[in-house]
């Protein structure tokens, strides 16, 4: 035993990271000593260990690394590329992908980088591609931006305009993906564009991130910003102006912002806001299990859906073969044809808790449509502007004039705020009251000044002295 303990002590004294090495990027050159390309070559050749490519002085603040070709394929088993506060901007010229990972790479972290103008012309990933990523591989993106990244295919699948990570675990934190697109130009059912910003077939975690103006465009298009075929947790994030646009007639677009398409997986949406996203089916979010006995679970808490459009149906949310819990969501001014679902469409869905949601007026279409199996564990505190959400649970009747609203785009996650006097304010049911609202503020607050702190309906908990309408609409940052 003593010998074993001694051996363990020796192991602890020589951690595996002892072989880790740091390679510095000190200039903006495309190649040569001190360049990003050279540092990646060195990391690839360094053998086992958690290596790091790190920007450091005299690399200029916000320095632009203008690439003339794809960077060396990432072959190190574990690699971090760290901007180290210099905010390096790594750019292509719209003709080649920027970063490609080999199957040997098991963990990649990008921290504090901006990547732009990458183009893939194979399966996907204009700025970061890991076609061969395995089921245990990990991608972590933090404090980074992707802009104008794309995959453009003449036919077949186009997956992940900015990022295609085949399998494994993907985490995106405190980052932004914008103006990226997945495009395929064929005209058949097998020409599928997926995930204008990212496609992964692994588990996805997104926190405090923004997805702005990303597009999937093809005969079939799915997930204007995000497509995953495994479990996903998306929280504290903002999706605006993403499109899944189909060139087919009638349209075959699904999920303007997020598609979670899986068998028996878990979809968690917490404290997100979806505005001005578009597709044919599900203007914002589509969650789909694959059959009745393998339902996906959907937990949607404190989300706001405003101004999204489903050209055929489901202006905001489509849930198919899903077991769903909806608490404290705000649906407002989403759009679909008059005989279709302006806010939500539930099909063969088990509806569990439905509490403290506000189904405010649509911009067109009925608030709720579809076919559900009702089994509410909790049905309380919902407000609806029309009577159609009795589909979810029969207790939801048309019950309120909810009053005017304003969309405040100034928080990182924008909010829909109702005017003073709205029944939304202090109108919730305490049984369904979540501890925080969409901004992470504690509930409940006495929002109507009667001395009783009660939970509001919807995603936002209004303070008593809300400055609503005092300063007009905020410009989108
Ligand atoms: Ca309140
Ligand atoms: Ca009150």
UniProtKB/TrEMBL annotation:
<protein>
    <recommendedName>
        <fullName>Outer membrane repeat protein</fullName>
    </recommendedName>
</protein>
<feature type="signal peptide">
    <location>
        <begin position="1"/>
        <end position="20"/>
    </location>
</feature>
<dbReference type="InterPro" id="IPR059226">
    <property type="entry name" value="Choice_anch_Q_dom"/>
</dbReference>
<dbReference type="InterPro" id="IPR011050">
    <property type="entry name" value="Pectin_lyase_fold/virulence"/>
</dbReference>
<keyword id="KW-0732">Signal</keyword>
């Amino acid at each position: 035993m003593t010998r074993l303990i001694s051996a363990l002590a020796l192991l602890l004294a020589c951690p595996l990271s002892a072989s880790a090495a740091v390679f510095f990027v000190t200039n903006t050159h495309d190649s040569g000593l001190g360049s990003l390309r050279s540092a990646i070559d060195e990391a690839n050749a360094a053998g086992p260990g958690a290596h790091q490519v790190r920007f450091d002085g005299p690399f200029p603040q916000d320095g632009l690394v203008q690439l003339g070709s794809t960077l060396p394929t990432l072959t190190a088993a574990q690699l971090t590329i760290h901007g180290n506060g210099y905010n390096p901007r790594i750019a292509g010229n719209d003709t080649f992908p920027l970063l490609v990972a080999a199957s040997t790479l098991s963990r990649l972290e990008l921290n504090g980088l901006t990547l732009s103008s990458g183009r893939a012309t194979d399966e996907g990933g204009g700025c970061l591609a890991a076609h061969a990523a395995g089921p245990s591989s990990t991608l972590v993106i933090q404090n980074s931006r992707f802009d104008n990244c794309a995959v453009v295919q003449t036919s077949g699948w186009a997956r992940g305009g900015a990022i295609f990570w085949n399998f494994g675990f993907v985490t995106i934190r405190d980052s932004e993906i914008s103006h990226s697109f997945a495009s395929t130009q064929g005209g058949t059912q097998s020409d599928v564009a997926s995930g204008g910003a990212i496609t992964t077939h692994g588990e996805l975690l997104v926190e405090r991130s923004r997805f702005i103006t990303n597009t999937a465009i093809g005969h079939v298009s799915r997930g204007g910003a995000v497509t995953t075929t495994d479990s996903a947790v998306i929280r504290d994030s903002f999706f605006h102006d993403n499109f899944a646009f189909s060139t087919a007639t009638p349209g075959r677009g699904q999920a303007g912002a997020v598609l979670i398409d899986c068998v028996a997986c878990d979809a968690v949406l917490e404290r997100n806001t979806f505005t001005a996203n578009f597709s044919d089916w599900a203007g914002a979010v589509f969650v789909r299990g694959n059959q009745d006995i393998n339902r996906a679970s959907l937990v949607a808490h404190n989300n706001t859906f405003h101004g999204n459009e489903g050209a055929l149906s489901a202006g905001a949310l489509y849930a198919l073969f899903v077991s769903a819990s909806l608490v404290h969501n705000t649906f407002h001014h989403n759009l679909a044809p008059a005989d279709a679902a302006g806010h939500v469409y539930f099909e063969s869905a088990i509806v569990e808790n439905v509490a403290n949601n506000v189904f405010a007026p649509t911009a067109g279409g009925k608030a709720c449509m579809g076919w559900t199996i009702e089994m509410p564990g909790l049905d309380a505190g919902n407000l609806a502007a029309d009577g159609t959400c009795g589909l979810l649970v029969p207790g939801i009747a048309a019950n309120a004039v909810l009053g005017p609203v304003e969309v405040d785009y100034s928080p990182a996650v924008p909010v829909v705020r109702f005017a003073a006097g709205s029944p939304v304010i202090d109108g919730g049911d305490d049984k369904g009251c979540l501890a925080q609202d969409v901004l992470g503020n504690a509930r409940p607050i006495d929002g109507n000044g009667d001395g009783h702190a009660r939970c509001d309906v919807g995603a936002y908990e209004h303070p008593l002295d809300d400055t609503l309408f005092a300063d007009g609409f905020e410009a989108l940052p």
